[in-house]
Amino acid sequence: MSIRNSQIRCQGCPSKTPLRPDPTNLEQAKAGIFEPPLDAGIRDIVLALVANGVETFESCEGGRGHTFPEPTVRFEGDSSEGLRALSVALAHGMPVAELRRTRGMIDGSIHGPWWVMTFHPPRNSVQWVDRDTAARYAAAATNVPER
Q1: CA 66 → CA 24, 34, 63, 146, distances in Å?
Q2: pTM, full prediction
Q3: pLDDT of 4-14, one tens digit each?
Q4: pLDDT 10s digits, 31-70
């Protein structure tokens, strides 16, 4: 009988992901209950991932005034979980932009690893306009003072 690393992590280990969802939060997430409520722009993505067993612990629709510049979901899992979550996302037609495995530093100690999946923002959103560098450069070029 083999025991996976995720099953034997101790609660006090300094390398434990600090935001790992507890069983109560996971059950509430499966029921669609989130506190604080999910951002409207990432809700459908999170619900689809959670319904397919992805243990999310942070999400944000991204953009001005948000934690992340683009829609982002962070989730738990071993080295194969990222590919499984990516498979779920693609099967549901989600506009995945990037998948990465990362670690964080909290109070001088390394934590993690965890997964981060980012998504292309909707084309009619402020985030899309913000990332359109061609439009920004064109607008800046029209406002360049003459020498």
Answers
A1: 26, 18, 6, 36
A2: 0.70
A3: 443 333 344 34
A4: 777 777 888 889 999 999 999 999 998 999 988 888 888 9
Does 2 fall in a domain? Answer: no
- Residues with Cβ within 8 Å of 60's Cβ and at least 6 positions away in sequence, in order, are 39, 42, 66, 67, 68, 71, 72
Q: Residue 97: which domain range?
A: 14-122
In a domain, 6, yes or no: no
Tokens representing residue 31 in the block: 């029921």
Is 79 within a domain? yes
How far apart CA 32 and CA 114 sit, in angstroms, is 22
Determine, yes or no, domain membership for 107: yes
Number of structural domains the chain divides into:
1
Does residue 67 contact residue 60 with C-beta atoms inside 8 Å? yes
| Phi and psi torsions of 58, nearest 5° | -160, 140
